[in-house]
Amino acid sequence: MHIVVCMKQVPDSAQIRVHPVTNTIMRQGVPTIINPYDLFAIEEALRLRQKFGGAVTILTMGPPSAEDSLRKALTFGADRAVLLTDRFFAGADTLATTYALATAIRKIGVEFGPPHVVFTGKQTIDGDTAQVGPGVAKRLGLMQLTYVSHIDNVDLEAGTIDVERRSEGGVQKLRSKMPCLISVLEGVNEMRIGSLSDALAAARATIIKWSAQDAGVEDITKCGLRGSPTIVKRVFAPKPRAEKAQFIELGDKPGDAFVDELFKRRPKLESELEQLTRGY
Amino acid sequence: MNDTAKAPAAAGRAAAKKELPEHLKAYKHVWVFIEQERGQAHPVSWELMGAGRILADKLGVNLAAVVVGARNEATQAVVRESFNYGADLAYLVADDILTDYRNESYTKAMTDLVNAYQPEILLLGATILGRDLAGSVATTLLTGLTADCTELDVDAEGSLAATRPTFGGSLLCTIFTLNYRPQMATVRPRVMPMPERVEKPIGRVIEHPLGLVEDDIVTKVLSFLPDRDSTKSNLAFADVVVAGGLGLGSPENFQLIRQLASTIGAEFGCSRPLVQKGWVSSDRQIGQTGKTIRPKLYIAAGISGAIQHRVGVEGADYIVAINTDKNAPIFDFAHVGIVTDAVRLLPALTEAFSKRLSPHQRDRLAS
Ligand SMILES: Cc1cc2nc3c(=O)[nH]c(=O)nc-3n(C[C@H](O)[C@H](O)[C@H](O)COP(=O)(O)OP(=O)(O)OC[C@H]3O[C@@H](n4cnc5c(N)ncnc54)[C@H](O)[C@@H]3O)c2cc1C
Hints:
The complex is a heterodimer.
Chain A: E1 2-6, E2 9-11, E3 17-18, E4 25-26, E5 32-34, H1 36-52, E6 55-61, H2 67-75, E7 80-84, H3 94-112, E8 117-121, H4 132-140, E9 143-155, E10 160-167, E11 170-177, E12 180-184, H5 196-204, E13 208-210, H6 212-215, E14 231-236, E15 246-247, H7 254-265, H8 267-277
Parallel strand pairs in A: 1-6, 1-8, 6-7, 7-13, 8-12, 9-12
Antiparallel strand pairs in A: 2-5, 3-4, 9-10, 10-11
Chain B: H1 7-14, E1 30-34, E2 36-37, E3 40-41, H2 43-59, E4 63-69, H3 73-84, E5 89-94, H4 103-117, E6 121-125, H5 128-141, E7 145-149, E8 151-154, E9 160-165, E10 172-176, E11 183-187, E12 204-207, E13 220-226, E14 240-244, H6 251-263, E15 267-270, H7 272-276, E16 297-301, H8 307-313, E17 319-323, E18 336-339, H9 342-356, H10 359-366
Parallel strand pairs in B: 1-4, 1-6, 4-5, 5-12, 6-11, 7-11, 14-15, 14-16, 16-17, 17-18
Antiparallel strand pairs in B: 2-3, 8-9, 9-10
The structure holds flavin-adenine dinucleotide (FAD).
Flavin-adenine dinucleotide (FAD) sits at the interface of chains B and A.
């Protein structure tokens, strides 16, 4: 079984600071990490390989420094890592990103065998769109299975896959066909700690690096900024609210003082709360 | 990704003149995809009808509701309801194959409709269903899609200006799809206000065939397990919300939040670290990566008010913040601030409210 995982290297958002004056993000020195949502996809891929044999290929598009995250992914036990890196890819929106990733997955199929399953995380913590997975699926004609919480069954002979996926009001159990794209819901598994031998292998591994041309991109105008139908026109800081909070002192009977103060300031709230608590 | 990393570079191209290809100039009108699962319209769709109405009026075009679903009474009811939320007309693809949401059939229905009737703007809810569908539809149509918008407008040239938080929500950016149609955007539930519902007669409904038989669809639904109602939190739609953050110090102290909430008929919520620590379940998280709330009253205890939390609560009518640090950012956007130890104040609030909202008091008010 060949499994491809699309992964993204993102800035560690917990360590992002906003410049107090210019309100711009200070990226300098912010460490990068594997997009946390993608870890669930990597783990799910490794579990499938454990059951059915085969190989896991990790794919990422990003700057040359994204090699760090790919190497990290190899320490968990992935078999190979492909870095799609080219200045032509810079500034890509979701549509241009899916073009590049889909092209590279086709090439991976030619080089290492066509994938049965392509995994993605639910979304990234930086773009937050959850749109790249569906776009890749559409471009490659893969069955699209998003928000998957459990893979119930894989029948390699019949080429079918049964999954549970989160839908708006419940859980859908679906039977679909491979090849498919699965975006994995967060929290559905726990990332393994890689073995020592995997860690050693990862340190020595050669990361496969493809330029747009290497990956088989035929139309460079579909990549990066040029291939992006969306344009960012303006970046700005949110408007601060006109006045700050009014501080209130509550004295030695703080509960009653608060309720009095609240109902004095917002008289309608009293009857609204009355309504809400009716029947309690 | 059009996040801030690329924003400066992208801004350079923004100067590029709009040159909409001739064949795309025929694209007119604003569409809202009315999301329904099993005959239940998702409220975000009506919120989008409100936003779509404003865009359509500015552009001087029609607002159309797009309904896709089983051929039954429930779907018809959703079509009728769309007129009560301001639709000028509705497009309908009704087929029993569409009973359950599946990407293949819904993508086909939507892309066929777009190709046949050519809208300039297409809005969808940024829900599980909407995100699954929007990505496929945009990629099939090879057009731009801006996810999770917090503001929608049209500029002087009639282009959709879609504003969303950039990375981490510290900044906002406005994104355009100048040379492609339709201009697609998704908006998360509760971000737009719910428009007023006005009873109206049903208007023009244009039906379009699905053009698929069940055998054409690869993915089969084996079963559907609806969430038990008791497991669903009504947080996003609650009139009153009480939430706690790391300042509470321990999972035991979070009980104080639950107690106050149940005393005043509120839903309870929390900041993200409490979910990450496993103190509270994830459906209770409020903020950019949790729920957006629009209550009449929001009480936040021990929450610092980081921007990612702020964007989820700014729609609240009245925000009360309890924090030991008078410089906490939450006081920048709360209406009322109390600088004190929440762990000590919360039980006093619970007691005082339960006295005030006592049965005796209630009867007196009701009469
Ligand atoms: C991509 C991304 C997405 C995120 N999404 C969300 C999201 O959806 N929702 C969210 O909430 N956060 C989100 N966050 C996290 C956010 O940045 C903050 O880290 C988080 O909101 C802080 O939680 P907090 O206020 O509970 O904790 P802290 O920031 O640690 O604040 C605790 C506060 O409690 C006060 N305090 C301490 N003791 C007491 C006491 N006894 N009584 C009263 N006050 C006390 C302190 O003064 C302090 O202000 C996100 C972050 C990122 C990077």
